[in-house]
Amino acid sequence: MDSLQIDITKLCDDAVVPGYAYPGDAGVDLCAVEAVTLAPFERALVPTGLAIAIPEGYAGFVQPRSGLAIKQGVTVLNTPGLIDSHYRGELKVALINLDANSTFEVHPGDRIAQLVIQKVENVSWHLVEKLDETERGTGGFGSSGVQ
Questions:
Q1: DSSP 34
Q2: Cα dihedral sign for 97, 103, 106, 111?
Q3: Cα 34 to the chain's mean position, in Å?
Q4: Whole-prediction pTM value?
Q5: Cα 11 from Cα 86, distance rounded (Å)
Q6: Which of 30, 81, 106, 144 is deepest in the core (most CB within 10 A)?
Q7: What span, in angstroms and rounded, lies between the C-alpha atoms of 20 and 17?
Q8: Rounded distance between C-alpha atoms, residue 65 and residue 42, angstroms
Q9: pLDDT truncated to tens, each residue of the chain (147 aa)?
């Protein structure tokens, strides 16, 4: 399988260069480089100590780690966090602790989120008077019913 090469730089010695846990994985783990304490319902921007150069035509999407979400109630606040191809600053993860009773401690080296790189298309908008008809039409949330 071909792979996309992305330049990466460590902004501090403790930064962890991401890698895939298993062959075929879609995301790589992002790790914290600073200790952060999240009280219940508190949010914080957690640095990774990394900067990357995503090629034009691609974007990075920061996603929650499922284990942290289900076991600790910790998730990515703006999921998915979007990293555009022209951004060259430090990757930081907006975490929130949704557990009403427990404080969550982030330690340097902890895996805090996943990064997925995807091909994205630029679009040109074509203004029309009316859109074509579909079976779904304007049905929104819950339009297919509850099973």
A1: S
A2: negative
A3: 18
A4: 0.88
A5: 18
A6: 30
A7: 10
A8: 18
A9: 678 999 999 999 999 999 999 999 999 999 999 999 999 999 999 999 999 999 999 999 999 999 999 999 999 999 999 999 999 999 999 999 999 999 999 999 999 999 999 999 999 999 999 999 998 888 777 777 765
